[in-house]
Amino acid sequence: MKSSKHKKINAADFDAAFEKEEVTKHLNIKSAKARFPSQRISIDFPRNIIEGIDMEAAKIGVTRTSLIKIWVAEHLAGQPTHS
Question: Are residues 66 and 57 in contact, defined by beta-carbon separation less than 8 angstroms?
């Protein structure tokens, strides 16, 4: 039987460790799968909008792309579905 190099840990211990140490040693990244398939798109923005996005992203410590994804998801979550 092949042994895993990842030590099993329960959720409470993982949460506690998250605050104190590097927890990636408890994760099996190779078997991680995206929850939803993604599709790449390209959007052109004026420079002043990109600069604003970059400033907001820097404030919360995420990338430009991540911030745009967050904003779109937040917007869609607050909208009724269109059928």
Answer: yes
Q: What is the pLDDT of residues 30-81, one digit of tens each?
A: 777 777 788 899 999 999 999 999 999 999 999 999 999 999 999 999 876 5
Query: Coil, helix or strand for 68?
Result: helix
The two three-digit tokens of residue 4, written as one number: 């895993």
pTM beyond 0.85: the answer is: no
14 closest CA partner among 28, 3, 2, 1: 28
The topology (CATH level 3) of 36-83 is: Arc Repressor Mutant (1.10.1220)
What are the structural domain ranges in the chain?
A: 1-32, 36-83
List Cα–Cα distances, 18 to 24, 28, 44, 63, in angstroms.
9, 16, 38, 22
For 61, residues 6+ apart whose C-beta sits below 8 A from its C-beta are: none
